[in-house]
Amino acid sequence: MKKTSLFSIVALLASNACVFGQSNTVSTGGNASSATGSVSYSIGQVVYTSAEGDNGSINQGVQQPYSVDVITGIEHPEIDLSVFPNPTQGQITLNIALDRTESYSCSLFDATGRLVFAQDKLNPSTIISLDAFAVGTYTLSVSKEKEVVKSFRVVRAY
Known about the structure:
By secondary structure, this protein is mainly beta. It is 9% helix and 46% strand.
């Protein structure tokens, strides 16, 4: 009886050595390798940690893909607007590639359409803090003289 119990414990411990530490249902993923190393990746949820070193940085974990799209407004190709980083953990930078930006304003709306932030008279590079807002998806609308020029989806991550 003791031999069976001891064997069962050893078999149980040995089988746990082959279990992977991360398990999740994801939309896609794969493996990539080169002569200098390999990596496994998956896309499907926003959970990751960052590590930085002298040779670079890496985000580890399961990540959600994102895109920055013009979702409303009239496209003005002469106006170069960009928002980064997106997704963000705290603040975003809104860049307007024009010399005169005083007539521009921005409004930030939550997922229900409620206005949560507004700013008039933007700078060519305006920093917007999202520290006080909950994790989620927001819409940032940039207007010129009350006309929406461009709107962005902004993701506030963990």
